[in-house]
């Protein structure tokens, strides 16, 4: 099966964009942007006029929800990694040795760029 260079690049970019989006969402969920979240929660608690018991129960519900989202994302990331690695291997199979070197360089550059942007976003 022949894949045009353009389709190959589009597939590669799509895979890494999906990875970047997943990573960004995961980081947002894991860190929770605590300050913003607390502000929104305080506003909601005030508008709903919750009792102390309701506030305590709400905190437990939200914490459990965050934990579940992180657990789901952790499992999803493992599966995503398998698909990404399989896709990369399939792409490498159709490339010449010279193209593989260039492909590996492109991948390394994208990984470095993604790591750099994650460090910039980290609190």
Mean pLDDT: 78
Spans of 5+ residues with little confidence (pLDDT < 50)? none
Total domain modules:
1
Order of helices and strands: HHHH
Q: Class by helix and strand content?
A: mainly alpha
* Total beta-strand segments: 0
Estimate the helix proportion, in percent. over 70%
Shape: elongated
Number of helices: 4
Query: Strand content of the residues, in percent?
Result: under 5%
- State the end-to-end CA separation: 46 Å
Report the major sheet: none
Using only C-alpha atoms, the radius of gyration works out to 21 Å
Description of the structure:
The protein has 123 residues and is mainly α. The protein has one domain (5-121). The chain is built from four helices and no strands. Helix 1 (5-31) runs antiparallel to helix 3. The protein is elongated, with a radius of gyration of 21 Å. The chain has helices at residues 5-31, 34-48, 52-94, 97-121.
């Amino acid at each position: 099966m022949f894949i045009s260079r353009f389709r190959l690049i589009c597939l590669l970019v799509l895979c890494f964009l999906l990875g970047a989006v997943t990573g960004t969402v995961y980081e947002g969920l894991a860190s929770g942007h605590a300050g913003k979240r607390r502000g929104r929660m305080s506003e909601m608690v005030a508008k709903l006029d919750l009792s102390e018991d309701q506030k305590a129960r709400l905190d437990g519900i939200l914490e459990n929800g965050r934990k579940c989202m992180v657990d789901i994302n952790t499992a999803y990331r493992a599966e995503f990694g398998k698909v990404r690695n399989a896709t990369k291997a399939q792409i490498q199979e159709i490339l010449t040795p010279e193209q593989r070197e260039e492909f590996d360089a492109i991948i390394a550059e994208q990984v470095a760029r993604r790591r750099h942007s994650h460090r910039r976003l980290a609190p």
